[in-house]
Amino acid sequence: MTTASRSRMTIAWQIARLAGNTLFLVLARRALSLAHFGYLTTAFSFGVVVLFLVTGGLDRLVAREAARNAASGAALLVRSVVYQLFLFAAVAAAVPYIARILHLKPTETALFYIVGAASLLMGVTFTLCGFQVGIDRFKNIVLTFVPTNIILLAGAFVLFIFRAPVVAWGLLWLFSRFLMFGAALFLFLRTRNKPVTIRTGRFLIMALPMGLFYLSSVLLLQVDTLALRRAVGASTVGLYQEAFRLVIAGTFLLRPIELPFFPTLSVMDPRSLTYRRDWSNMTTLMLFVATSVGAGLIAFRKPLLWLAFGHTDAAFVVVALVGFLLMRSVCDCFAQFFIINGPLLLGAGVMFAGVAFSWFLTIRYASVLGPMAGAFASFLSHTMVATALAVSVLLIFRQHPFGVRLLPAIAPAGGYIAASNLMPQWLQILLLPFALFASFILLPSHGRRMLLEVVFIRRKRFAAGERAADTV
């Protein structure tokens, strides 16, 4: 299967997941009060932390191992699931202590348990899907996510009509994750090879650094929400999450660029010319997409917020969070370099430092700035982490993953974002198409071919070393 085919499959399941998650939260916000929506989204932030704690990068390890040897990948997957169960038991035991730290009410504590269990199922699902990525069966991932998200949305509409309580929304989320797990397990049992023996010691050596790296990454993403809940309460969290959920949806659009390259890059020499060329393709396109999405969010923030939540109170937070979106994409570029090449513990240490910095800033200024404290803390902490990771890559590998044509490609959309505060809303909307078109034209030729290939063309190639035609 070519990278373009993988991209199309990835787009399909990412759109299904994005639509399911976003519309679920939109309907929940319409049905619940701002405080109860804050309860639910705080639990979701905790759930994301649990998800990446129990996943711990095991989906990437399984994908990388399965790309090299399918039988070895299957054996690693089985041990990964057992490891995830032990981790979740530890998290469940810690929930009462977390409730005291965050000053949670009984309803919120119940939601933490429900969403935490859903995150365990989702973590196992991602690990099962990692095996499908490794053996190049992206169609199975689509079959896992598309039907189950349709069921999730159908249930959400029912809860919206009957104005169900917040706990019912949590239980629906848990049920949908159980369906995803069942679908992923069924497809794995149909495609797995006979497993081989993997020693537990070797498995832990592989899993722990990756787990710490992914845990630090997701904490960096969610710590602002948890800090706001402790500092200023659920209503402010609800307002912040309206803007955050709109912006974070943009990060889903980066996955169709990043994920299809992962099996190819995992088996290449990081110092080879082919590796650097493919890596340059991926990172240039990721940042082009991030700046384009950020520009679009700024121009249409009020219509999107009104359509989703019925008001535009969080519009000012969206503008601040666009800076976070751009820096998050830069962090992801360097983070993927560490995931494939290491050293993972160094990268985890850098991001844990960013977590502490973000927590301190949010707690310190939340009473003065409200939800803007979380946005500014996220932007500054991600900027610090991106800089530290970039310096680490330059010092350790004597190279960087960005192409020489990167800055011209993102300059028009980036300049649009920087100047947006100087323009009225109507002018922002008017100039947006020109900024996006200019950025597209300034992309390197291989970048333009990739975007056009993913959307329109099937039998071209843009990743070095791939066959021109699909093999699946």
Structure description:
This protein has 472 residues and is mostly helical. It has 2 domains: 1-198, no CATH class; 233-466, no CATH class. The chain is built from 18 helices and no strands. The longest helix has 37 residues, at 273-309. It is globular.
User: Which structural class do the helices and strands define?
Assistant: mainly alpha
Unreliable segments of 5+ consecutive residues: 194-200, 457-472
- Main sheet specs: none
Indicate the multimeric state.
Answer: single chain
Shape designation: globular
N/C terminus separation = 5 Å
Cα radius of gyration in angstroms? 21 Å
Estimated helix fraction? over 70%
What order do the helices and strands follow?
Answer: HHHHHHHHHHHHHHHHHH
**Number of helical stretches of at least 4 residues:** 18
Q: Number of domains in the coordinates?
A: 2
- Percent range for β-strand residues: under 5%
Give a quick precis of the structure:
The chain has 472 residues and is mostly helical. The chain has two domains: 1-198, no CATH class; 233-466, no CATH class. The protein contains 18 helices and no strands.
Secondary-structure blueprint of this entry?
Elements: H1 3-31, H2 34-55, H3 58-68, H4 70-102, H5 106-134, H6 138-162, H7 166-191, H8 200-232, H9 234-252, H10 255-258, H11 262-266, H12 273-309, H13 315-341, H14 344-369, H15 371-397, H16 406-418, H17 425-442, H18 445-455
Helix pairs in contact: 1-6, 1-9, 1-18, 2-4, 2-5, 2-7, 2-8, 2-9, 3-4, 3-5, 4-5, 4-8, 5-7, 6-7, 8-9, 8-14, 8-15, 9-12, 9-13, 9-15, 12-13, 12-16, 12-17, 13-15, 14-15, 16-17
